[in-house]
Design a protein that fits this description.
The protein has 287 residues and is of the alpha+beta class. It has helices at residues 2-24, 26-34, 116-132, 164-177, 264-280, and strands spanning 51-55, 63-69, 72-83, 94-100, 141-143, 147-159, 180-187, 192-202, 210-217, 221-224, 236-242, 248-255. The strands form three sheets. Strands 1, 2, 3, 4, 5 and 6 form a six-stranded mixed sheet that branches. Strands 10-9-11-12 form a four-stranded antiparallel sheet, with helices on both faces. α1 (2-24) packs across α2 and α3 packs across α4 (164-177). The chain is elongated and about 80 Å long. Its main location: cytoplasm. Pfam families: RNase_PH, RNase_PH_C. InterPro entries: ExoRNase_PH_dom1 (IPR001247), ExoRNase_PH_dom2 (IPR015847), ExoRNase_PH_dom2_sf (IPR036345), Exosome_comp_Rrp42_subfam (IPR050590), PNPase/RNase_PH_dom_sf (IPR027408), Ribosomal_Su5_D2-typ_SF (IPR020568), Rrp43 (IPR033196).
């Protein structure tokens, strides 16, 4: 018993030393793992974390989804309102995505107004949703020049462990795919829009984008699906977005620029398509 207790105590001390070293020298800590072609969480450099999608998790929303990507967890709800269209786009409604990174999801975020990171991610999400045509804003028209739908696509990260962009895009697309709107008609006499309580119609969904993000470390290592520990140490983050047929939709890059091999982008694109084919092709199937 004494030997077992001593062994347990020694293991605890080793774990504490490793944790201390990780906090004081994070870059060296990561370098030592990568030198052995493994990452601190045990994954290979090109390995992705498990993903799960649960839809209709919020009963008060028009559509919703809960996504887990490893330990990163994002919930998204879609709320629909009626508004007047813009004068120069009388037949187009509005899609308004937003991501909140509250203090409760990670110690790195503080209470207060939205962080710069949340704003940057929201802008990137808006760019992908619009460019990929998940929902045609024209399909949100109730009466040209009079009434259109506004879809507020609000996502909240409830546990942050890196790669919030991929998880949030999954949550937003799944929530939109599960969204139904009451049948609405515009009454010209009363100048009002009447919504049916009984008849609800699904959104007209176009493409289904899925993002795959990578980080480059020291210009020599490409890490798939980076964690919150790895993210601050990365030179560059590359997000590759593919649609429901595996076709390339967009590529976005944040950081100092790609260093090292000229084919880093091509490697990321090929890896994204392979992951989509192997594990993500049916990720929206449950919805």
């Amino acid at each position: 018993m004494a030997a077992a207790s001593s062994s347990s105590s020694s293991a605890e001390q080793d774990a504490l030393k490793a944790l201390t070293f990780q906090r004081l020298h994070p870059k060296t800590y990561l370098e030592r793992f990568l030198a052995e072609d493994v990452r601190p969480d045990g994954r290979n450099l090109d390995e992705w974390r498990d993903v799960s999608v649960i839809v209709d998790s919020i009963s008060t929303a028009n559509g919703s989804a809960l996504v887990r990507l490893g330990s990163t967890t994002v919930v998204c709800g879609v709320k629909a309102e009626i508004a007047e269209p813009e004068l120069d786009r009388p037949e187009h409604g509005f899609l308004v995505p937003n991501l909140d990174l509250p203090a409760i999801c990670s110690p790195k975020f503080k209470p207060g107004p939205p962080t710069d990171e949340a704003q940057v991610l929201s802008d990137r999400l808006n760019e992908v949703l619009v460019s990929s045509g998940v929902v045609s804003t024209k399909s949100l028209c109730i009466e040209p020049g009079k009434a259109v739908w506004v879809l507020y696509v609000d996502a909240t990260c409830i546990n942050y462990d890196g790669n919030a962009f991929d998880a949030t895009l999954l949550a937003m697309v799944a929530a939109l795919k599960s969204t139904t709107l009451p049948k609405a008609t515009y009454n010209e006499d009363t100048k009002r829009t009447i919504c049916s309580r009984k008849v609800h119609e699904p959104l007209q969904i176009g493409r289904l984008p899925t993002s795959f993000s990578f980080g480059t470390f020291d210009g020599t290592h490409i890490l798939a699906d980076p964690t919150s520990f790895e993210e601050p140490l990365l030179d560059t983050t590359i997000s590759v977005v593919v649609d429901e047929s595996g076709g390339l939709t967009s590529v976005m890059q944040l950081g100092l620029g790609i260093v090292g091999a000229d084919d880093v982008l091509n490697k990321c694109i090929d890896a994204a398509k392979e992951c989509w084919l192997d594990t993500r092709r049916d990720v929206y199937g449950a919805t």
